[in-house]
Design brief:
Layout: H1 5-15, H2 25-33, E1 43-47, H3 52-65, E2 70-73, E3 85-87, E4 90-91, H4 94-113, H5 120-132, E5 138-142, E6 159-162, H6 170-173, H7 177-185, E7 194-196, H8 201-213, E8 218-220, E9 226-228, E10 231-234, E11 239-242, H9 251-269, H10 276-285, E12 293-296, E13 300-304, H11 309-320, E14 327-333, H12 340-347, E15 353-356, H13 367-370, E16 379-380, H14 384-393, E17 398-404, H15 406-426
Helix pairs in contact: 2-4, 2-5, 3-9, 3-10, 4-5, 7-8, 11-12
């Protein structure tokens, strides 16, 4: 028996030691024991190395503008365990989470006794489906990693979405684009359409082979829908959308908006009725924490979760569009299993100074890891809080970027918001 939400949080923290265990047998077992809530929802499933969070946010904004009740399951959380599941933009309450967890706990314990211990992410996924089954019109589900063997790949969506495919999580997904694409392609479901973003020819072949094997209609970027300057074209539907003025910055966000509009067009086809003027207005207003987010003014501090090489390339593209005379400084922290050397080398020419740090996570790169890359110019400080405090106190005419792992960005974001609240209380 867990008597408080704090007890539940301690339970999840201790259970983190189980780590990542790819495979669906445990989550499917839990779902069967509680009556298959995943079969009682209409949903869209999002996978992709980058872009899935932003694309999902744009789709959510459009659906909310039409007064649909929208469930969202996402990771990582920017708060606590409740920050993974939302209805209409509001996280599940702590009492409701506690209640659903208590309902699920006997079934978790049964699997534990059978040496089939479900992971934290598997438990969170099941709680989300329990929460969504009777409270939503449509759900948007984001994969945790990969797709085919990802915990979330346990339901049949109206539409599958694969935003991008590049190198990430290679220790689980493989070292080649073809292997990674194989994992992403696994979220496709027979006869249900898939929307695919801009991908390489190698990844495209894998996608088309998978789709052909299970009769999946494909809607592919630059084929069935196109981005021309600030317009998204869907020729078969005779639709043209003007997306000039997106709140989410960067050219890659225009591509994400194109994907979102293709998804929304297909949802409209299956009875999720939409008005296109409302859709465009809401997509332009969509924002997402930690995606080129200006979190502080005077000095300007921008957070961006460029957690892999593709994310770094997108960030660099945005910075190249900024005033070249503006001083820019970077604080970076990443996971040790990423392409850190290449990422930092790519960032270095765009910044006047780079500071590298570490953070509390078993996968976080430490000083020993960064010492292997000293040919790349940066300074190291293990205390990221100290660096962030220096940035917030800075009187320089400088734009500060903080980037790297989403887990790091989550910690920094909470820290900055807490600091801001503290200083506001002193005024």
């Amino acid at each position: 028996m867990f008597y408080s939400f704090q007890d539940v949080e301690k339970y999840f923290k201790q259970r983190q030691q189980l780590g990542i265990k790819p495979g669906l047998e445990r989550v499917l077992s839990l779902l069967a024991k509680i009556g298959h809530p995943e079969r009682k929802m209409k949903g869209v499933h999002f996978a992709g190395t980058n872009g899935k969070g932003s694309t999902m946010q744009m789709v959510q904004s459009a659906l909310l503008a039409h007064h649909y009740r929208v469930g969202v399951f996402t990771s990582p959380s920017f708060t606590d365990v409740t920050g993974h599941m939302f209805i209409n933009g509001k996280a599940i309450t702590k009492p409701r989470f506690h209640e659903l967890f208590q309902d699920l706990l006997p079934h978790i314990q049964t699997l534990d006794d059978q040496e089939q211990q479900p992971t934290v992410f598997e438990i969170l996924t099941v709680i989300a489906f329990m929460y969504f089954q009777e409270n939503t019109d449509i759900v948007l589900i984001e994969t945790g990693m990969g797709g085919r063997y990802d915990t979330t790949n346990c339901f049949v969506p109206l539409i599958s979405v694969i935003t991008s495919i590049s190198y990430d999580h290679m220790q689980f997904l493989g070292d080649s684009i073809e292997e990674i694409a194989f994992h992403k392609a696994g979220i496709m479901k027979q006869n249900q359409p898939v929307v695919i973003g801009r991908i390489s020819s190698k990844a495209r072949k894998v996608m088309h082979d998978e789709a052909a094997s299970i009769s999946v209609p494909i809607y592919e970027y630059a084929k069935q829908f196109q981005l021309v300057n600030d317009q998204v074209l869907i020729p078969d539907k005779q639709l043209i959308f003007d997306i000039h003025g997106l709140s989410l910055q960067g050219y890659h966000q225009k591509e994400n908006a194109a994907i979102a509009l293709m998804v929304l067009t297909l949802l409209d086809d299956v009875g999720i009725s939409l008005q296109w003027n409302n859709v465009i207005t809401s997509i332009k207003k969509a924002t997402l924490p930690g995606r080129l987010e200006t979190i502080h003014q005077q000095p300007t501090v921008i957070l961006d979760s460029a957690h892999n090489l593709a994310g770094v390339e997108a960030l660099c593209e945005t910075i190249l569009g900024m005033d070249p005379l503006l001083e820019k400084r970077l604080l970076f922290a990443g996971f040790a299993d990423k392409q850190l050397d290449t990422m930092i080398q790519r960032l270095q020419p765009l910044f006047d100074h780079i500071t590298v740090t570490s953070f509390a996570h078993e996968r976080a790169a430490t000083k020993a890891v960064y010492d292997q890359h000293q040919h790349v110019g940066f300074t190291f400080n293990a205390n990221w809080q100290e660096e962030v405090e220096k940035i917030l106190r800075s009187q320089r005419e400088t734009t500060y970027f903080i980037t790297g792992s989403l887990h790091f960005i989550t910690m920094v974001r909470q820290f900055i918001l807490q600091q801001s609240q503290f200083h506001n209380c002193l005024k």
